[in-house]
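Hi,

I'm pasting everything inline rather than attaching a file, because the server keeps stripping attachments. The sequence lines come first, and each chain or strand is labelled.
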Amino acid sequence: MTRSEVDPANLASGFDFVRRQRDPEFRKYLHDIGWTSAHHVVIADDEESVSAVVARIINNDTPSPCLIAIPSSSERFGFGFMFMEVTHASTRRSWPWHRNRPHDADEIPINSETSIGMLYSSARRCAEYIPNEWMHPVVFKQARIAA
Amino acid sequence: MTRSKGRPRKGRLADMTIQPAEDECYEPPPDEECDEFSSTLDLAANVRMGTRQMYMRGTSELVYFAVWQSHKIDGRWEKVVRVDCHHGTVHRHDFARSGDNEMAVLDVIPVKGGTSEFLGSWCTRIELVMQNEWEANLRRWHGDKE
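And the predicted assembly:
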């Protein structure tokens, strides 16, 4: 058995998110990007690796899709948002056509050093990511509406 | 604890059977008259919090709130603390590993006038208290001595 520990910065960010919920503009923004109460919100630090965030989501049995909230003072409501979804397609990595196909220009590779902030900053829908622990690809999609 | 009549008093440990006098007890409006805003936040591995807020439909008039803290232990999510405002009071549930649920009334919700401001003020206070007491709540749940 291990004790549950939370980084104080993540805890503060979580409560910041909760406090902002009282702002009708923030609630409207969340609604406009497609968030509903069914989507869990995963608080992730900008520098946290994608693999660590995904591992946390797996550990917590977080339902898919979920909304990743990245604290960022440059964003309108103090957070950058990305949806993360586990697709139900088979792992395409093994498909011959997938291995050989030319990669789209807007795909970015995700490796062990890729941080969630880097992924968010790419400002594109990203290619699949296949964690070892999962049988299905994961898709990240930035959620942002211009002010 | 013996059961006493009338409205629960602020600060006392609550007997779950105590109900404010029926004509004085605040109840939120029916769900169909409200906009609900609930969220579940994963803060770290095995650490989760949640909120539920209800507003009068189309307004920012807060009519109900709840905030809770839970953690995952031995593969199960366990409640640690929950503050909500059912039964006419703002009250806090402190859960324990043993399964105990100790409830304390924090305040009685006014029925007439200023209810939304009252709930908003308490919601703000509770969020601060929950943040400050996060680790202490976990230690208490585990049965650690303070």
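The interface with chain B takes residues 1-7, 10-12, 14-15, 17-19, 21-22, 24, 27, 37, 40-43, 55-57, 59-60, 62, 66 of chain A (CB under 8 Å).

If the labels don't parse on your end, tell me and I'll reformat.
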